[in-house]
């Protein structure tokens, strides 16, 4: 399900039943939650954080950087995908690698738009201890919308939204729209953002992970920009989680998990931003999603460790450039089964050359023939 933003003309006199939104509640923005429902889950998340940090701490600097490259590339790509925008994964990875000082081969050069989006992520994570300000948010917003347009529509860029028309988040065909949310009046946004930023930069008596979750929901509730609010909310979340972790890199991707549960994500935000200021359900959802993200990251880190061990064991084995390239793909992001034809396609060679490369690696104990049958012979890494 995809949503769009509309501004309802004040001349449209449409009789509708309007819910009470969180920002209209008398106690806004004094959020409440039930600690008894969160304490065990929060403890689990904190323990998992410690475990992933311990795993990463035992790796060398180079491996840490490459793991962070994988995670932050995925975070950028998936955060945009949540909003229905598809970025070129290789271009994002190329830009991220250059900025992290990591050498990569065979990746395309990034365009200016991709460079800007990557820079937003790195500014948030590397600048996790810097104050979050209006100007910093405006710079991030300008990077997301360098042309001053969202799709074909002109929008206010690098400034909060303006205008007197109510801003609504809707889905459905024209004339059959379902209103999921109506944001505060544009004239109220600057003062609301003053309150939000003061809170975000203060040393609150709140667990840092919960603070990241609250900030995400609070920012979405204000909806301060014409577009890009979801992506910026997730960027702020990454910044505060990096601060909570106390690390200059990201080792798990919240956006990758949110994308898997996108429908539930929108539903819980809609529920939380309507009615009272009790946000317990949102905090539970956020913590559970973070837990899943760390579990997934732990599996990835274990794979990185195995990959490093593999190359260490086989450092004296002679391999050509094609063989090294395919083996690295098998460790990283290869989907499906390795066959001679896939090898030929990846390395842009003939199937005869591919078969010679594969046979050579079998003889050297690097590859084995899979015994799972099938119409074509396929091969596996001997880990």
Task: Spell out the blueprint of helices and strands.
Elements: E1 4-7, H1 35-57, H2 61-82, H3 89-100, H4 112-126, H5 134-144, E2 149-150, E3 153-154, E4 167-171, E5 178-182, H6 189-201, H7 208-222, H8 229-245, H9 254-260, H10 262-272, H11 280-313, H12 321-332, H13 340-347, H14 351-363, E6 367-369, E7 379-381
Antiparallel strand pairs: 1-4, 2-3, 4-5, 6-7
Helix pairs in contact: 1-11, 2-3, 2-9, 3-4, 4-5, 4-8, 6-7, 7-8, 7-11, 9-10, 9-11, 13-14
Key traits:
383 residues, mainly alpha, Fic-like fold, Arc Repressor Mutant, subunit A, 2 domains, 3-stranded antiparallel β-sheet, two-stranded antiparallel sheet, 14 helices, 56% helix, 6% strand
Class per helix and strand makeup? mainly alpha
Q: Into how many domains do the coordinates divide?
A: 2
How many strand units?
Answer: 7
- Strand order of the main beta sheet, please? 1-4-5
CATH class of the largest domain: Mainly Alpha
Quote the CATH topology of the largest domain. Answer: Fic-like fold
The shape, in one word, is: elongated
Distance between the termini: 41 Å
Q: How much beta, percentage-wise?
A: 5-15%
Mean pLDDT across the residues is 90
Helix content: 55-70%
- As residue ranges, the low-confidence spans are 9-16
Gyration radius, rounded: 24 Å
Separate helix tally = 14
Order of helices and strands: EHHHHHEEEEHHHHHHHHHEE
- Biggest sheet record: 3 strands, antiparallel
The CATH superfamily of the largest domain appears as: Fido-like domain
CATH architecture verdict of the largest domain: Orthogonal Bundle
